[in-house]
Amino acid sequence: xxxxxxxxxxxxxxxxxxxxxxxxxxxxxxxxxxxxxxxxxxxxxxxxxxxxxxxxxxxxxxxxxxxxxxxxxxxxxxxxxxxxxxxxxxxxxxxxxxxxxxxxxxxxxxxxxxxxxxxxxxxxxxxxxxxxxxxxxxxxxxxxxxxxxxxxxxxxxxxxxxxxxxxxxxxxxxxxxxxxxxxxxxxxxxxxxxxxxxxxxxxxxxxxxxxxxxxxxxxxxxxxxxxxxxxxxxxxxxxxxxxxxxxxxxxxxxxxxxxxxxxxxxxxxxxxxxxxxxxxxxxxxxxxxxxxxxxxxxxxxxxxxxxx
Length: 308
Prior knowledge:
This protein has 12 helices and 9 strands. The protein is α/β, with parallel strands linked by helices. The strands form 3 sheets. Strands 1-2-5-4-3 form a 5-stranded mixed β-sheet, with helices on both faces. A two-stranded antiparallel sheet has the order 6-9. A two-stranded parallel sheet has the order 7-8. Helix 8 (about 160-175) packs across helix 9 and helix 9 crosses helix 10.
């Protein structure tokens, strides 16, 4: 029997139950105070594809010390969160990564990540600037910290962009099926940022008043161009473009080219972190190797004029 697809309403209901459970029990059971819980990823961005999505939740707490994370990672806090989740009915722990507790709850796969609480993006950027020079994969550990600003950034984008992102992700899911896995799979955030930049270029070319079909066709053309010329990419959004920083403010944090810079975190270069090997039947893994070979090979079949 085929597995029943989870609806958006079911996913949202699960999120509400989990948030309530954490807010009610986390401090008393672990001593960790819940400062904020953010619905991140595709659900938070408004770009989830029906029947093919995981739920990402980010738990922010003032009790999580950023410098301890820099030295030792998130293991101690994730371990405490896991022990609390083990007490829930209908919940099955599937594993713990360096960034998240992964579990299934009422048939829905969930990644629960933890982060220090930051009042402002600039607080995070100053902290990152205070760290000694570290490899990109270690700085990537702090990408989760910017999740709430990533969500806010995409919530501001036009509905047309979000629709095109859904179409691109549906294409990606078809080309890299979960049960088969595959190398070079672009993650959802990379897809979203590429579509956004392609849409910006397309709208400037055909005019913002053009029909949806005309913009979709031109956005497809721009996506093909971006991926086929990926080694030349230099994509970023500064604060006057609804980003959260100016390049001149944090030059030491910006990655080298080629780059697709996270609009909420100047140290996160999606050119590298957004593409990786996806093991068969497993969820996407954080980080990446920046190997665009398969993405470039497949991109010619992307057609954003086709609805999901």
